[in-house]
Amino acid sequence: MNLKVQRTVSPLTPAVSPLKGEGKDSRLGGQTTRFAVQRSNRGSAVMVVLVLLGVMAILVIANTTTLHQLRQELDQIDKQQQKKYGQDSRH
Fold first, then answer.
1. What's the domain count of the chain?
2. Which of 33, 51, 72, 90 has the greatest number of beta carbons closer than 10 A?
């Protein structure tokens, strides 16, 4: 029992415009839709790169702030030790 199933278009489905390169009468043979998909993928890739650059910038700023705070703490500890033990010429 071989039944051949044919695909029918529902009346609720929007019509496909041949101007977009999707219909049977298209001269481009579907190239327009491929370019649209490639452009969409390219846009997604650009967004991913921008998000990664943003994350990297946040990490650089956070590290710079932390290094500045550590430098201040180190200077404070150095001053406390110099005050406690006196200025030594071995520094």
1. 1
2. 33
CA distance readout (Å), 34 to 6, 18, 23, 38, 50: 26, 14, 13, 6, 24
DSSP 69: H
Distance, in Å, from the CA atom of 54 to the CA atom of 18, rounded to the nearest integer, reads 41
**Residue 50 domain flag:** yes
Q: Which domain holds residue 39?
A: 21-85
Q: How far is CA 88 from CA 46, 68, 74, 77, in A?
A: 57, 26, 17, 15
For 11-65, the pLDDT digits (tens) are 666 555 545 554 454 455 555 677 777 777 888 889 999 999 999 999 999 999 9
